Amino acid sequence: STDTEEDSVSRRQVTIKQASLMAIERLAQALCLATGDERVFKKGSSVLLPAMKEVTVLITSQSANLINLTDVSSSSQIEMNDGEIQLLSTAALCASTLVAVLRARCLPLLAKLVKPVISSLTSINSWLMKCSDMKHRKSANLSQLALLRTLVSVAETLPQFAVPYLGILFSPSALPSRMLRSDEREDDVIVANMTERLDRALAKRTPARQIIPAASKAVGSCLNNKGNSSNSDAEANDRDDVAGWQEAKALLSILKSSVECTSRAELTPVVGKLPNSVLIAFKYDDDEEGQQELLAAANETLLALVLKLSEAQLRPLYARIREWRGDLDETSTGGDDAEEAATKRYAFWSMSALLSKELRSIFLPCLSSVLSDAIKELEFAANILCTPD
Questions:
Q1: 238-277, pLDDT tens digit by residue?
Q2: Which long-range contacts (CB under 8 A, 24 or more apart) does 19-25 make?
């Protein structure tokens, strides 16, 4: 009986908090966003800033509770509290409106807001990866949507101040997570659309010199760390659950969009960094579907970069990738080293074919530099295929 009464009081408190948050959000929209009156805006801002502080405190508290509940070391049978999750969602939506209204005035609170929002999103994504129970799926999707909306508001309103958080935002269980990019259910599609909006906002509004190194490093985190022998089997299994080619593909898409939105002059300082992530993707061969998807994404990202380069910049870049590919060793046809070498060569010629098709005569000097290599590859392939078992 006591437990029932406590639950009833708890639900009532959650309902009151949600109603208050919704009232603050509507007030902010009506006074500051809808009217367009600068005097009203200034007065409203002075009133809404204390509200922003309280909303930030609430989000931090709810995030801490969620992280404890969905800790990655805990059981997959996690009982989510829909009321608490919905309160977090309402607070996040309120915060997104307040960020759009207050703009630079909320800078002192930004770190206290963005970090728990990203942590909450990461926790929910991790929980969805581990739990097949559909009971709380809708509440989790609503929270994903609300948290993404807050991050979109920050990225669109204060893009230059979002840079310090790119590292944690690009962690495998955060923005790149496959749990934000599914199309299995209607709710998943809505979340995926909001995720794409955040991708675009970051790619368009964050300077390339800042977003490209962060996203390139994150691609390595998704793909390079798999199979690290220094980790226990349990850690490796857990890492495989949250990082893989899907997450790397999402990051490559962000990189591609960033390159397309950036001028050649702005790209010059990071020309050497972006190919690093592409080469990491080229080496992936854990499964056939992932290899093909990742290879296509890496090729498209590299093509977007090449289209922004001069011919003088293209030649050393292509030479670098050719050196990475290595030479054909006809004496080694088995073992892990031979498989890795074959994967590299397959990726290299796939990339060369795409650049040749898209660049046409511009690519001829680069293509002529590897013509003898192509002939050697064909002769080697014919030799292998024509040799009886």
A1: 444 456 899 999 999 999 999 999 999 999 999 989 999 9
A2: 21/55, 21/58, 21/87, 21/90, 21/91, 21/93, 21/94, 22/90, 22/94, 24/48, 24/51, 24/55, 24/94, 24/98, 25/93, 25/94, 25/97, 25/98
Distance CA 290, CA 281 (A): 10
CA-wise closest residue to 223 among 249, 203, 202: 249
Give CA–CA dist 82/239, Å, rounded.
27
99 touches 154 (CB < 8 A): yes
Q: What is the pLDDT of residue 95?
A: 97
Tokens 């630079």 sit on residue: 104
In the three-class reduction of DSSP (H, G, I as helix; E, B as strand; rest coil), residue 370 is classed as: coil
Give the whole-angstrom CA distance, residue 87 versus residue 105: 25
Task: For the full predicted model, state whether its pTM sits above 0.85.
Answer: yes
Vertex 163 angle, CA 158 and 165, to 5° = 105
Distance CA 187, CA 349 (A): 40
> Of the segments 29-43, 329-343, 366-380, which one has the largest average pLDDT value?
366-380
From the centroid of its chain, how far is CA 210? 15
Separation between Cα atoms, residue 304 and residue 151, nearest integer Å: 26
- C-alpha 377/C-alpha 387 separation (Å) is 15
- By the 10 Å C-beta count (0-12 exposed, 13-18 middle, 19+ buried), 266 is classed as middle
Q: Is the pLDDT of residue 225 over 90?
A: no
